[in-house]
Design a protein that fits this description.
alpha+beta; 5-stranded mixed barrel; 265 residues
């Protein structure tokens, strides 16, 4: 074979090697970048977890201090002690909520705060479902008169995925009586409009303490997903390492070994 022919046949191989190198470099860089991004997300979640734990160690807020909060959402996960009246007729049972893996309801009741024109929605606890009759609700004791509760400031109740759209809430002038207290989700803005209550809609409260009034209160910790981010980071770094290893093997080591065999052959 002439020298010109050898050069001509080698040119496409060099072009392909360059293309393979660029693709491998892009994949490795992408894997490393995505792995680092997942690590940064994990660090953010860990900082949030530390903030939640720090809020829990702060002194319990009294009612006057709670009502005076300029930015209540900055006090999320802090304990409060409040006094008021339960509005038992407006209780809501959020369906398909679990505690210790058992399906049931989160029981929510508005609490009209003493000496104020404010009402807060309290997630009072969990009630096990009647497996024979879903609409049959277990007994929940709601004390009449002035009560004092200890709770944690929490976001509004989390929404579960549901098929279709909930019907629009009736206007405030229409009575809510007769509607089922069992709901899949609860939108506080719509509930405020429906009931006409002076309800705080930017937050709710999770009542804490031992089981009582027919309710359990072993609330799950906020699901921050830190371990999931570390798992994703490991996968991306592993993918980058795999691409690098395959490139070195097939584009450097294998051609080198073939060249060595051809020289000795």
């Amino acid at each position: 074979m002439s020298e010109r022919a050898v050069f001509a046949s080698a040119a496409p191989r060099r072009k392909h090697r360059g293309l393979y190198a660029l693709v491998a470099l892009a994949l490795v860089a992408t894997g490393i970048a995505l792995g680092n991004w997942q690590l940064s997300r994990a660090a953010q979640k860990e900082a949030l977890q530390a903030q939640i734990e720090a809020q829990g160690r702060l002194p319990v807020l009294g009612q006057d201090d709670f009502l005076a909060l300029a930015k209540p959402l900055e006090a999320l996960h802090r304990r409060v002690r409040l006094r008021g009246l339960w509005l038992a007729s407006q209780s809501v049972y959020l369906d398909n909520r679990q505690m210790h893996g058992v399906p049931g309801f989160y029981v929510l009741t508005p609490l009209a705060l003493e000496d104020s024109n404010e009402t807060v929605m309290v997630q009072r606890g969990w009630l096990q479902r009647n497996f024979n009759d879903r609409a049959q609700l277990g007994a929940v004791e709601t004390p009449p008169g002035l009560v004092e509760i200890e709770a944690v400031i929490a976001p509004p109740p989390a929404h579960l995925l549901e098929l279709g759209k909930e019907a629009a809430a009736p206007p405030a002038s229409e009575p809510a009586a007769g509607s089922s207290p069992i709901r899949q989700n609860l939108d506080l803005e719509a509930f405020r409009t429906q009931t006409g209550l002076p309800l705080r809609t930017e937050l709710s409260l999770q009542q804490v303490g031992s089981a009582s009034q027919g309710l359990q209160r072993d609330w799950p910790a906020p699901a921050l997903g830190v371990d999931r981010h570390y798992g994703y980071a490991f996968q991306w770094f592993g993918l980058a390492a795999l691409v690098a290893i395959l490139y070195v093997w097939f584009q450097l080591i294998v051609p080198f070994r073939r060249a060595g065999r051809s020289r000795h052959g």
